[in-house]
Amino acid sequence: MDLDFNQEDLDFRNEVKDFIKEFYTQEMKDELARSKNGSASKDLHLKWQKSLYEKGWIAPNWPEEHGGPGFTTTQKYIFETEMAHAGAPRTIPFGLSMVAPVLMEFGTEEQKKKFLPDILSSKVWWCQGYSEPGSGSDLASLQCKAEDKGDHYLVNGTKIWTTLAQHADMIFCLVRTSKTEKPQEGISFLLIDMKSPGIDIRPLITLDQSPAPYQEVNQVFFEDVKVPKENLVGEENKGWTYAKYLLEFERGNSYSPSLYRGIKKLKDIAKDTSIGNDKYLINDIDFVSKLNQCEIEVQALEFVELRIFSALSAGQRVGPESSILKCRGTELQQKIQELSVEAIGYWSSPFVLDTFANINEPSIGPDYAMTITPSYLNGRKTTIYAGSNEIQRNIISKAVLGL
Amino acid sequence: MDFSFSEEQTLLRNTIQSFVQDNYDFDRRREIIQSDEGMSKDNWKQLAELGLLGVPFSENDGGLEFGSVETMIVAEEFGKGLVVEPYIQTVVTCGGFLRRASEAQRQEHLPGLISGDEIWAFAYAEPQGRFNLADIKVSAAKNGDEYTLNGDKCVVSAAPWAHKLIVSARTSGDQSDKNGISLFIVDKSSDGISTRDYKTVDGSMASEVSFENVKLNSSSLIGEEGNAYPLIELVADETIAALCAEAIGAMSVLNETTVEYCKTRKQFGQPIGKFQVLQHRMVDMFMQYEQSVSMTYMVNLKLEEEDLERSKAASGAKVQICNAAKFIGQSAVQLHGGMGMTDELNVGHYFKRLSMIETQLGNADHHLKKYSLAS
Amino acid sequence: MDLNFTKADQEFRDEVRDFIAENFSPENNTGQNIEKYHEVTSDQMKEGILSWHKKLYKKGWIAPHWPVEYGGVDWSITQRYIWDQECANAGTTPLIPFGLTMLGPVIIAFGNDHQKDWVLKGILSGDDWWCQGYSEPGAGSDLASLRTKAERDGDHYIVNGHKIWTTLAQYANWMFCLVRTSSEGKPQEGISFLLIDMNTPGIEVKPIITVDGGHEVNEVFLEDVRVPVENLVGEENMGWTIAKFLLGNERTGIAGVARSKKAIDKLKEIAKSELNNGEPLINDSSFNKKITELEVDLTALEYTELRTLAKESQGEGPGVESSILKIKGTEIQQKISELTLEAIGNYASPYITPLSVRNFGSNYLEVGPEHTQGVAQNYFGMRKTSIYGGSNEIQRNIIAKMVLGL
Ligand SMILES: Cc1cc2nc3c(=O)[nH]c(=O)nc-3n(C[C@H](O)[C@H](O)[C@H](O)COP(=O)(O)OP(=O)(O)OC[C@H]3O[C@@H](n4cnc5c(N)ncnc54)[C@H](O)[C@@H]3O)c2cc1C
Ligand SMILES: Cc1cc2nc3c(=O)[nH]c(=O)nc-3n(C[C@H](O)[C@H](O)[C@H](O)COP(=O)(O)OP(=O)(O)OC[C@H]3O[C@@H](n4cnc5c(N)ncnc54)[C@H](O)[C@@H]3O)c2cc1C
Ligand SMILES: Cc1cc2nc3c(=O)[nH]c(=O)nc-3n(C[C@H](O)[C@H](O)[C@H](O)COP(=O)(O)OP(=O)(O)OC[C@H]3O[C@@H](n4cnc5c(N)ncnc54)[C@H](O)[C@@H]3O)c2cc1C
What we know:
The structure holds 3 protein chains of 3 kinds.
Chain A: H1 7-23, H2 26-33, H3 42-55, H4 73-86, H5 93-106, H6 109-120, E1 126-129, E2 145-148, E3 152-160, E4 170-176, E5 187-193, E6 199-204, E7 217-228, E8 232-233, H7 239-250, H8 256-272, H9 285-313, H10 322-343, H11 372-379, H12 389-400
Parallel strand pairs in A: 1-4
Antiparallel strand pairs in A: 2-3, 3-7, 4-5, 5-8, 6-7
Chain B: H1 7-23, H2 26-34, H3 41-49, H4 68-81, H5 87-99, H6 103-114, E1 120-123, E2 139-143, E3 146-157, E4 164-170, E5 181-187, E6 193-199, E7 205-217, E8 221-222, H7 229-264, E9 266-267, E10 270-271, H8 276-301, H9 307-335, H10 346-359, H11 364-374
Parallel strand pairs in B: 1-4
Antiparallel strand pairs in B: 2-3, 3-7, 4-5, 5-8, 6-7, 9-10
Helix pairs in contact in B: 1-4, 4-7, 5-6, 5-7, 7-8, 7-9, 7-10, 8-9, 9-10, 9-11
Chain C: H1 7-23, H2 42-59, H3 77-90, H4 97-110, H5 113-125, E1 130-133, E2 149-153, E3 156-164, E4 174-180, E5 191-197, E6 203-209, E7 215-228, E8 232-233, H6 239-251, H7 257-273, E9 275-276, E10 279-280, H8 285-313, H9 322-343, H10 354-360, H11 375-382, H12 392-402
Parallel strand pairs in C: 1-4
Antiparallel strand pairs in C: 2-3, 3-7, 4-5, 5-8, 6-7, 9-10
Helix pairs in contact in C: 1-3, 3-7, 4-5, 4-6, 7-8, 7-9, 8-9, 9-11, 9-12
The complex binds flavin-adenine dinucleotide (FAD) (3 copies).
One flavin-adenine dinucleotide (FAD) sits at the interface of chains A and B.
C-alpha cells in the first residue's frame, strides 16, 4: 500500500498536462462553459476526440491490439485525474466504452474490423437504444421487436431517452426476438444504421430546456426498419448477457477527480460572491462547513475508488461494490450542484434559453452563473439513469449484503 | 386558538380555485410563459374583476379589507396552479408598502393597482448585498424638494411588466446601515431608468434596473426619510408568509402527482408504489408538506405580533419551506424517473418554482441566522 | 383561524401555574429527571410518580382526555395545550401512560359495566399500576403473530406464554394482555384482550437491563396462569380491534412537544456554560445552527400537533396523522439527546448508571460538571423511542397505506 507516484508516472503526468494545454483550447473552454448539460457542439467533441485519437489516448480502456494505449492502472488514474482537473470534454461513451467492449468480446471478426476502427477515429458515432417508455428500471420487459425475415430483421417499436441520438450514425439496440417465459431470454443485441428508412427521431426537452439541436435525449421510432442479419451481435436471444456485460464494463470509471474540480469551482464562486460588508461567501462559516463536509465525502469516495482500482489491477473483477461508486458519485455531484445554486443567490433565477447562441452578449450577473441552475436541474438525471440509485441500492443489498 | 376557515374564506378559496381551473391548465400556462409578454393581461384583468387585487386594502381605499389568512389562501391556490401573474409582487409586497403610505399616496396609486391598470414591482436586491435588505448602494441625494436616484438593482421580479417601482435607496449612512434607508415610488417610464428584461427559470420575468440621475419629487417618498428599514422588514415578512403559502400549494400538487404516478407506473410487474423505499420517501415528502403547512399557518397568524416575534416566525417558516421545497422537488423528479426530467411534464415546472422560492428573500442559511438572533 | 388565548384561557393558565407551584415539588421529580437519574433508586421513582398522580387525582385533573362522566375534564384544546406547556415548564413528573392513556379509553369503549367500575376507579386513584403485555420474543412489529395462549377451562382461562419488553412490570399489580384464543383464520382473528392480576400464581417477572444501564423493561413468563373469564374485555377473539384502538391512542401525546421545548432550553443552557476555544459553545456558529434547525423543526411539529388537536376537538380523529406526531416527535427527542451529548464533549464518556452507583458508591457521581450527569445514558435510552409504540418504519408504512393509499 502506498500513495506515491514513481518518476515514470510523474513524467507521464507532465505529458498529459502538456497535451491538455495544447489541445484544450480557450475557445473550447469557453464553449463548454456555456453548456447546460455537459455536452457541447458535435464539432467540438469531434475535434477533441480527433486530437486524442492522434495521440493514441482516445480509448484508455481498450486493449492494445485494438488500439488502446496500454496504460497501467496508475497511468489511467493520472490520465483521468488530469483530464477532470482541467475540465476537459468527456469522450462520448456510447461507441468507445459501451458498444466497443461488447464487440470485442462477442462480435464476429468482420464486425470488429468493420466497426472498431471507426469508433476509435470517431468517424462513426453511436447511441444507446435500451430504454423504452414501458421499460426503464425493468429493462428486461422491453417490447421493441425484431422479426426474422430471412436475410434481415424487421424492427418495429420505440426507444426513449436516447442520448445524443440526433448526432448518431449507428444505434446499438436491445430488441425482442422471442416471447419467452423469462423475458430476459428473448432479447437480442442489434446494430442499426440510423439512416435506415423508417427511423424517426424526436427531441425530448429536459428541465434545463436545452433547445434542439442541443437537446440531450430523444425518442427514436422504428417502423418496419430493415436490419441486415450480419448486424446481430453474438447469438440471437442472448442479448441480455451482452447487455449485462456492457453494464459491468461501463462501471469502474471514477467520479472523484471531477468532483474535486466541482468543489474547486464552487470555492472560486464563493470567493467571488459578496455577502456585504466587504465579506465574501467563502467567509461564511455555515456555507464553508457545507463545502467542507462535501469535500470530506469526496475524499472518502476517492479512497473507495482507489481501493477498487487497486483490486482491479491485481486482477480481480469489479463486483457489485461499484454500485457504491455510482450512488455516492452521483449524489455528491448533485450536492455540489445544489450548493452552487445556493452560492449564486439571486443569480440563480435568470433564464437563458440558448446558452450557446448569445455567446457575445454580456451575461446577467457573473458569467459563470448562467449555466449553474440549468446544470443543477440537468444533474437530477444522474440518480435516475444508468441504473437508478434505488436500483443500485437494491443491487448492493442483494449482491453484497445477501439480503 | 382555532385553525378552521370561515365560510367566507372557503368561498374565497372556491373562487380562486375556479379561476385557476378555468385559466390555468398546463397547456394554457405554457402558452402564457412562452409568449413575449410572459404573462396574461386578460388574467390580470379578471383578477381585478374578481376583486382579488384589492384583498389586503381597506374598504376606504377601495379594497376588500381582508387579513393575512385570506392572502394566504390566494397565494396557496395560485401556487397549486403555478400562476405567473405578479400577484405577490404587486398586491402583497408593493401593496404592503402602499397600505402604509400617506393618504395622498394611497389615493393617487391604489385605484390603479386595484383596478388592474398598473402592475408594481419592488426593487430591493443589489449585486453586492446578497440577502441583506439593508445593504444598499443605490443612492437618493436630496436637493431642495427633489431627490436624484443613482445605482443598480438586480433581479427585480416582475419589473418587465411593471408600470411603477418601489425602490429602496440610501439617503444617508454607510452601505449596510439600517438607518438612512428610504423608499420611493418611481414611475418606470421616468427619464434615466434603463432596464434589461429577461425570463426566469420558473417561468416568470425579471429585470436588471439601472437608475441614472433619475429625478424624483419628494411626494414620492414613502414614510419618513431614512427610516424605511423597519417597514421593509415588515413587508418582507408578509411577503415571506405569502411565498410560504404559494410553496405549500405547489408542494401539495407535487405530492399528489407523485403518489398518483407511482400507483400507475408499473415496473417489474407491479406499480412502483409497492416498493417500500419509494413508499417511505413519499411518506417523508408528505410529512415535510404537513410540517410546512403548519409553519405557513403559524407565520400568517403571527404577522400582527411585535417585530421580533414576527420576524422570528417568518424566518422559521422560511427555513422549513426551503428544506421541504428542496426535498419534495428533488424527490418528485426522482420518483418519476426519466419522465421527471422532461419539460413536458408539470413535475419539473413545480420543481423549478419551488427551487426559486428557496432563494427569494433569503435562503435557509440566511433565515436560520435571523431566527437564532431573534431567539 | 386565530392563535389568540381568551381571557378565560389566561385565567386558566394562572390557575394551572398556581396549582403546580403549590403541589409539585421538584424533589419529587424523580421519574425522568436526567440529572437526578443516577440517584434514583427504584422505589423512590415509583413513589415520586405516585405522589404527583394522587395530587392530580384529588384535584380532578388526572385524566383530562377522558369523557367527563368517567372522571375526565372538559378542557378545550387550548386548555390542554396550556396544561402540557405548564407541566413541561415546571418539569413535572411524567405520568405512567398504561392505565390513563391506554387502558382507560379501551375500557370506556369496550368494557362492561362492572369493568368500567373497578378498572377505571383503580386507574384514576392510582391504586392500580398497569403494565402492557403485548410484545413477545417472536412478535414485535408483527404483533399479530403472538403466541401466548389462553385456553378456556370452565370459568377461567389458563394462560401460557412469554411476554417481553414489559415496561415497569416490576411495579405493576395488573397487566392487560393480548393472548391467542384461536388459531383459526387470519392470525388477527384469534386474539383476545385479557386483564391479568400480576399476583396470580405462575407469573414470573425478570428484569432486562437496557443500553442506558436502567431497569425499565422486563420479561414476563406465564405458566398455567388462571384468569377469571370475567376479565375478558369485549368478546373473545375481538382483541385485535381493541389493540388497534389502543395503539391509536398510544400515539397521541407521544409528540412530547412541550417537553422537547424544555429540553432545548436546557441544551442551550448547557451550550452557554460549555466552552469551545474559550468561548461559550452557543456562540459557535455551527453548533448554534444545529440547535436552531431543531427549534424550527419543533415549532413546525408544535403547530402540526395543534392542527391535529383542533381537528380532534371537532370530532375528527385521532387519525393516522398521529403517526406523523410519533415519527417527528421521537426524531426530535433523539436529536436533542444527540446534540446534548455532543455539547458536553469529553464528559460524555464517564458511564454512570443506577447500577454503577450502587456498586461503586456515590463518589462516582463527581465526575464532570453537574449538567453532564446522565446525558449519555439519556442519549442511549432515547433510541427506544423510534422502536416502541409501533416503530417509525411501521408508522411510515401506516401513512403510506392509510393516507397515501399506496
Ligand atoms: C438524461 C437521461 C439520459 C438517458 N440516456 C439513455 C440512453 O442513452 N439510452 C438508454 O437506453 N436510456 C437512457 N436513459 C434512460 C434511463 O436509463 C432510464 O430513465 C432509467 O433506467 C430509469 O427508467 P425510467 O425512467 O423508466 O424510470 P422507472 O423505471 O419508471 O423508475 C421510476 C422510479 O421508480 C424507482 N424504481 C423502479 N424500480 C424500482 C425497484 N425495484 N425498487 C425501488 N425503486 C424502483 C426508480 O428508481 C425511479 O425512482 C436516460 C435517461 C435520462 C434521464
Ligand atoms: C440505459 C440503461 C443503463 C443502465 N445502466 C445500468 C448499470 O450501469 N448498472 C446496473 O446495474 N443497472 C443498469 N440499468 C438497469 C437495468 O435496466 C436493470 O435494472 C438491472 O440490470 C437488473 O435487471 P434484471 O431485470 O436482471 O432484474 P433483477 O436483477 O432481477 O432486479 C433488478 C431490480 O428490481 C428489483 N426487482 C426485480 N424483480 C422484482 C419483483 N418482481 N418485485 C420487486 N422487485 C423486483 C430487484 O430487487 C432489483 O433491485 C440500466 C438501464 C438502462 C435502461
Ligand atoms: C424501552 C422499550 C419499552 C417497551 N415497552 C413495552 C411494553 O410495555 N409493552 C409491550 O408490549 N411492548 C413494549 N415494547 C416493545 C415494542 O413495542 C417493540 O419493541 C416493537 O413493537 C418492535 O418490535 P421488536 O423489538 O420485536 O422489533 P422487530 O419487529 O423485530 O423490528 C426490527 C426492525 O425491523 C423493522 N421492521 C419490522 N417490520 C417492518 C416492516 N414491515 N417494514 C419495515 N420495517 C420493519 C422495525 O422497524 C425495526 O427497525 C417496548 C420496547 C422498548 C424498546
